[in-house]
Amino acid sequence: MADSSDATVARVGDRLSAQLRVMQAEIIKAMETWHDSVLTEFRRFEVETLGSLSCIEHRMGDFDGCLSDVEKRLQINPPAA
Fold it and tell me: What is the pTM of this model?
């Protein structure tokens, strides 16, 4: 009788292990899809932000040049940094 119970427990354990492996694989697959979409969104945001920062830096450089021209015309010394 004990051999029969042990065999049943072993079969249940094997089936449970197999089901857990399948569930684990499904979770990993779902997380991989989520990770890929988040990474894609992050890269898009990074590119857009970098483009915006570059544009802002360029505009600030233009503004600084214009301000320097005005200061020269008015003979104003720029404040010390």
Answer: 0.45
Specify whether the CB–CB gap between 68 and 77 falls below 8 A. Answer: no
Q: Which amino acid is at 30?
A: A
d(CA 78, CA 81): 9
What is the signed CA dihedral for 32, 37, 41, 44, rounded to 10 degrees?
Answer: 90
Helix, strand, coil % in the chain, rounded to nearest 5? 90, 0, 10
Per-residue pLDDT of the chain (81 residues; tens, 9 = 90+): 567 888 899 999 999 999 999 999 999 988 888 888 888 888 888 787 777 777 788 888 888 888 888 888 888 766 665
What's the full length of the chain, in residues? 81
Q: Check if the beta carbon of residue 71 is closer than 8 Å to that of residue 78.
A: yes
